[in-house]
Amino acid sequence: MDFLRPASWEEALAAKAEHPTAVPIAGGTDVMVEINFDHRRPEYLLDLNRIELLREWEVGEENVRLGASVPYTEIMEHLRAELPGLALASHTVASPQIRNRGGVGGNLGTASPAGDAHPALLAAGAEVEVESVRGSRFIPIDAFYTGVKRNALQPDELIKTVHIKKADGPQQYSKVGTRNAMVIAVCAFGLALHPETRTVRTGIGSAAPTPVRAKEAEEFLNAALEEGGFWESGKIITPSIAKQFAELASGACNPIDDVRGTAKYRRHAVGIMARRTLGWTWEQYRGTGRTLEGAA
Ligand SMILES: Cc1cc2nc3c(=O)[nH]c(=O)nc-3n(C[C@H](O)[C@H](O)[C@H](O)COP(=O)(O)OP(=O)(O)OC[C@H]3O[C@@H](n4cnc5c(N)ncnc54)[C@H](O)[C@@H]3O)c2cc1C
After folding, report:
1. Each residue's pLDDT tens digit, 186-198
2. Taking 80 as the threshold, does the pLDDT of residue 97 lie above it?
3. Ligand 1 center–CA 191 separation, angstroms
4. Buried b / exposed e across 86-102, counting CB within 10 Å, b at 16+?
5. Cβ-Cβ contacts under 8 Å for 84 (sequence gap 6 or more)
6. 192 and which of 43, 107, 123, 239 could share a cystine (Cβ 3.0–4.6 Å)?
7. Which atom of ligand 1 lies closest to the CA of 25?
8. Where do the domains of the chain lie, and which CATH numbers do they carry?
9. Quick check: CB of 156 below 6 Å from ligand 1?
10. Is the CB of 6 within 6 Å of ligand 1?
11. Which whole number is the average pLDDT over 228-250?
């Protein structure tokens, strides 16, 4: 196995173009597990750790530009206000050691349906900036996941930056696991309120072949909140609306039975998490959240 150690982004892109089968390694918390278990024996490893720009982030007017290798710990420490859903999701990843190494670029690279960043990215609204020697392109997060552990990257492309909408309202993330740390999600749910556009976005993890949004549930809730004047009044969401939202979120799942849980349990748990995260975010909105710009 050859180890390629580019010193710059341009060198990394050139190396990937020359060796499209080279496996990029950032934190290595997925790659090294696969190599150690002999699930993967790549001819080339492409080490991205000398590339500073992948570890940088920038808070802009509307978006956060998150370098692919920014570790979860830094998201939790520095971007909690701008990316509350992703910060909460980061908090649930593994252990401090893994959170110090692993990042969102690696989570996207692996594209496991159980990856914790995905529901938060889907709910917040994100675009993945990928680049090759041919140029760069932006992939909307909804189009990024193409199958079980498959993503929209071409063989010569690398993930450079994830552009994530800054929170304009409360966000929550909920994860079911067999314990509180070092656990892969049995299933997970992310919810973001967007008072500026009076919309709600969701993300479901580990309950379908890919991370997905509960689009019907979103559409139902958007209409119910608008028709009932909830955004203006901030009144409590009626139990029947919350119940219907939960049922539709549950219906968006297409899970399997596996060692972590049954399909039936996953559907049920996603419904519960949808109802709870809606309750939590709406309570926040009724309090501090409603003073945000755009919320009447
Ligand atoms: C003990 C343990 C517990 C874990 N628990 C969790 C958990 O609770 N939740 C969770 O979501 N994950 C968990 N993971 C998985 C892992 O930590 C995450 O998926 C993490 O985000 C991977 O990031 P990384 O930088 O280490 O990726 P790496 O292992 O370096 O790479 C992962 C994949 O992404 C590709 N890649 C990396 N960077 C790029 C790039 N810039 N462009 C293109 N491709 C790239 C690699 O080639 C590889 O295919 C756990 C892992 C371990 C070992």
Report:
1. 999 999 999 999 9
2. yes
3. 23
4. bbbbbbbbbeeebbebb
5. 167, 170, 171, 172
6. 123
7. 30
8. 2-165 (3.30.465.10), 185-287 (3.30.390.50)
9. no
10. no
11. 97
